[in-house]
Amino acid sequence: MDLARACVALGLCAVVGAGCGLGLAGLGPATLGSRDGGADAAGADVTLDAEDAGEPQEAAPAEAASGDSSVVTITTVGAVTQPTGLAQETHLVWANHSARWWLFWVDAGQPGQLQATSSPDFVTWTDATPLALPASHAEQGGNFSVAYADLGGQDVVHITLDLQYPDPYDQRHFHARATLAGAAILYGPPAQLTMVTNPALTPPDGPATVVTADGHVFDATGLTTVADGGSEVAWGSTGTDMGTSWDGHFGPPQTVATAPYPVSARAFASFGTGLGAGLLALWELADEEDPTNVAWSSYGVLGWGAPANLFPPDAQSANDWDVAVVAANDVRVVRRSLDGTFDHVRYDGNSWTTLVAPPQDPGLAGSGVVLLTSGSHVAVVAIAGDAASSVRMIVWDGSAWGAWSTLEGSPATRRYLSAWSSPGHAAVLWTQSSSLALDIAGETVSF
Q1: Residues 6+ apart with CB under 8 A from 204
Q2: CATH 2.30.110.10 matches 11-441
Q3: Which of 19-28, 309-318, 428-437 has the lowest mean pLDDT?
């Protein structure tokens, strides 16, 4: 039996020739990496004219048969794999003091930069200074994530990212920090945490980062040498981010778990305050061609606890789950299995409880399932398996699920949901094809 396990059918081909066998308007799945280190399938590069940095650009409303003018196309990225990231990653944040949305992305035409843009209204976007990278992002949108924190009256973002060096298989994990002020961003230099030359570690790695309630910073990646297969390894900062300053120092790597295959998707959840504060690490189990579970561990005074599984075993996509913090002692995780059924659990700081799951709604496997929160309400957003690749949402009102509704139903080829929610601000992003290449599109959501 062939044990090669595609991490997830997460590839998007932006085609300009015969390389992927699709027309320009096509956007098809490709296997980015397999558990046995199979070759990537990627689209040809697309050369696009860059907008002038810092010049406001009004994003074009997406054509919507339903007349939904709130959907906007924010930017075009060329032939980038997963430009909106994985469902568990954060590429979009709302900055409280700047009162602006901030989007981070990678562009195929700028392999040595992480791009940034901001908007006060999700319509008009102003490009900001990009982060200069010490190596190439290798057109992998699933290899970085950001965490936002309001610290000492300062908007702060922490960035975790994997970079590819020219030498074969030379992959390195970096961490960077930036402060936001209005439409301006000021970066610190990226610091390398680890490097590896293991050809079995195929992208996406799905790195995660978080700022805890007390200002400590954690990173997680699988780009390490602790196991021949996959791993969940974390770093914790030795000091706290004060908002006005941070020393940038991390402690030694902490092995949380190992896996038979490379882990493709991971997340953190920081919850509570003071003595009740907690931190969870979560990752896809990476035990089969299609993983059978989401694993978790909690962090305490003795370090990371023994890993355990969240759900009854059931084949799922590595990307079809998400975690959200609803309240100080209310962390939710929802996952969708390959058969279309959902699971819904709650963590209260001590133990997990199984809650009523959302009803089935035919979805596109591997495209991501994201959670949004608004007070006691929790929304699940997914891309439907219909011909229009509709964006669908269902809301838990605190005691029961409502009915699935369509956020965006105009015909398009959509993939790779990601999202952001904080008090008063929620939005979803996705990747869709255009006449040039791939676009990042999205809309704000209220529920």
Answers
A1: 7, 10, 32, 33, 81, 82, 86, 140, 142, 143, 264, 265
A2: no
A3: 19-28
